[in-house]
Amino acid sequence: MDKAASSRNVSKWADLHRDILAMIFHKLDVRDIAMGASRVCISWFLASHNKTLWNTLDLAKVQQVEEGLSLRIIMKKIIKFFDINETRQNLRYITKLSQGAPKNLFFNLDAYIQEDDLVFVAERMPNIEKLVLPRWCFQSKKSYQFAFSQWRNLKTLIIAHDNLTGNFVFQEVGMNCNNLTNLKYFGDLRKNTAKLIVSYLQSLRRLSLQCSFVRNDEVLLLITGLKNLRILNFSHCKELGGERIPNQEEITIGNLKQAAIQNYVILLLCPKDNCRVCKAQPKFCMFWSYGSKIWRNDEIKELEF
């Protein structure tokens, strides 16, 4: 009797309309759909191909691990960080079901993405409009060229850049992504980086440097050099001393405000002396860990995810 009742219950679930199943699947994360729900029965497998389920792929949720500082958890995090095969396996399962539908793709801040991973994603998800790339993104110029040549519809780019991984190829972005109007840069904004952004991303209207290491000289270059810029988020940044040139006045926040007014740019600042976010910031060595907790939020709504 129990087996018969169980069989009838399974049959009822399997007979649900696909649109109803899709509404239920929306409550799951992408891995639960790909690795779980899609394998229950043929009806669920077909429902898991609903394109609305795959509009946004938030891989950060897939890669979340336990918090804590025990040796077991630390070792688990290290193994998870370098488990490239797991990342590729997740991507393979997901792309089989999503079939090129995703428009938003978010990697975890500390995901470890190699060249083949980015090429694989770009080939199978050409319609990306909003992209979040991780800190550890080891790519050759060739892989970046291919990826951004596929993502010509890209409108919003959010990158966590570590100089240990080399320079980010803003030139390839600028050459291929004419619709890009929003950029969030999280990292150490150096003079070369600011020059590249000005040289190749003139279409930018919104730029966020939230919680980055910055120098006022480079920020001034962005304000005056990006001719279509309308909003610059300068909140919660760590200001570093710029290169001192003899007989040249130091660039201050006042200079940045004046330049913003002259160039019709809205400059978003936080009250440094009374800002809870800034007061909570740790020393340099722990800054990346701290940033990972808040970088999904932003004062510019287009750059939240």
UniProtKB/TrEMBL annotation:
Signal peptide: none
InterPro entries referenced in this protein's UniProt entry, alphabetically: F-box-like_dom_sf, F-box_dom, LRR_dom_sf
Pfam families attached to this UniProt entry: F-box-like (PF12937)
Domain F-box: 18-59
Source organism superkingdom: Eukaryota
Protein name listed in UniProt: F-box domain-containing protein
